[in-house]
Amino acid sequence: xxxxxxxxxxxxxxxxxxxxxxxxxxxxxxxxxxxxxxxxxxxxxxxxxxxxxxxxxxxxxxxxxxxxxxxxxxxxxxxxxxxxxxxxxxxxxxxxxxxxxxxxxxxxxxxxxxxxxxxxxxxxxxxxxxxxxxxxxxxxxxxxxxxxxxxxxxxxxxxxxxxxxxxxxxxxxxxxxxxxxxxxxxxxxxxxxxxxxxxxxxxxxxxxxxxxxxxxxxxxxxxxxxxxxxxxxxxxxxxxxxxxxxxxxxxxxxxxxxxxxxxxxxxxxxxxxxxxxxxxxxxxxxxxxxxxxxxxxxxxxxxxxxxxxxxxxxxxxxxxxxxxxxxxxxxxxxxxxxxxxxxxxxxxxxxxxxxxxxxxxxxxxxxxxxxxxxxxxxxxxxxxxxxxxxxx
Length: 392
Ligand code: ADP
Ligand code: MG
Known about the structure:
6-stranded parallel sheet, 14 helices, about 35% helix, about 15% strand, binds magnesium ion
């Protein structure tokens, strides 16, 4: 299924290894606030160290504009990693250049060097061949474990892979296996649950899943645009007028496989303390907005989920950040967790919702990549994966 070489296929003794990780973590006042992504790379890093490699790690962090800026430095991440690994981690304040070359050459087996934010360099997002070659010269082997960045063809995620033996790390392998399997040969019935704020972010995903899934359950803000496309006024709900034609096209394409909420929770303000009521889907009064799916919808969706062989979920069912409108999302999370299906959840907010629900350990695979997981579900090939060595 996963037809790329991985770190299992290479002898790392005495090798310098450039590892592209996804250490794009939230930082506040110089401190790492959520280490999920750092921890997710540890199996790969420990495996390489145990086999006698020295590691040169690089990642982007945030969206620095027009060059280096201290708030996006990788230094706090390097320090945090040192704490996690229980050993020193060197840091160099550049991505390439004489100081980086010297630091890389000084590395002994078992040692770790973290480079500065890849996006401080203007060549990164342009996939500049010169930068790719400079990066490649630092190491003997390239390992890509940054699934969350694999949908970008950047110098550190794609370009560099053409200049070194390039293989996948364990995290990359696991992500592609689960998401790829769900798309290519799902255990049926295959149920896709899609929600979140906007339809426009996920049109390609809805279209592709309508082709391959047995049921596509729609909730969240994106349902509103479908309602409006069906002719229901949606009051003050979040709606995308520019996506109405697309919504009509998807409705026609989906037929009975596409299921919309049959009842909704509406509120008189966009606030947790707002007055709220449940109504069967019908015109929403002016001044009111849809903030969650209703209990009848949750029950109907739960029934479909209970018999699923595979569940893929992206996008919360309502404004789950407000406890009074989190019911629908939690109810669906419960159904996914207690189904016997292979369950895969992707998307930053969806993953946060499942973590909040306390059910994360009952999910088969929680993806670390938002955009990358969406592109997989869309059926696209990720450039960072395509550039790795083929198995045969
Ligand atoms: P993910 O990060 O999982 O891909 P999205 O970013 O697409 O999900 O959407 C998550 C956001 O959608 C949340 O902030 C949530 O509050 C919002 N949302 C869900 N339902 C609604 C709704 N009915 N009205 C407005 N916003 C909504
Ligand atoms: Mg989001």
